[in-house]
Design a protein that fits this description.
Layout: H1 10-20, H2 30-39, E1 45-52, E2 61-68, E3 71-77, H3 80-86, H4 91-97, H5 101-113, E4 118-123, E5 130-136, E6 146-155
Helix pairs in contact: 1-2, 1-5
Length: about 160
Amino acid sequence: MRGGRSGAGLAAVAGLVLAAAAGCGSGGSPTEAITSAAAWAPPPRYAFTLYSSCGERWLIGRFGVTVVNGEVSAVEGLDEPARLAVKDRDLKFLREVVPTLSGMAAEAANARANGADVVEVTVDKTDGHLTRVDIDPAKNAIDDESCYTITDYRVLTGTPT
């Protein structure tokens, strides 16, 4: 399950991914990137914009994602491909295909553990949340990539409705 992963192990997973990727795309030294990722823990409620841009898959476009207690609670299509993708989809389906930040970190860690040709992870220098994940399991294969850009990350306050 991609999106519904618990945040409990994110710091270790992100650190593993960053260590394995030798700091690729971290914007600083590998040690700085690992420290930033290890310092970030998913808050109970957060939101972000996800731009998924490669691979042959359903999840292509720009999505507004809300996460509550480690699980996707809402997804909004922000561009035409994303609006068409989420139209008439139930939350159960969306939770399976739209990743949380923890889910993206786990996907990258699994790809690295399974010998992917490319696993690059970028984290925010301020708090260590993911800002980009690029995975290509096999360079010679077509449309097997995952490319995620994360923007507009924000911690949400208040009680979920």
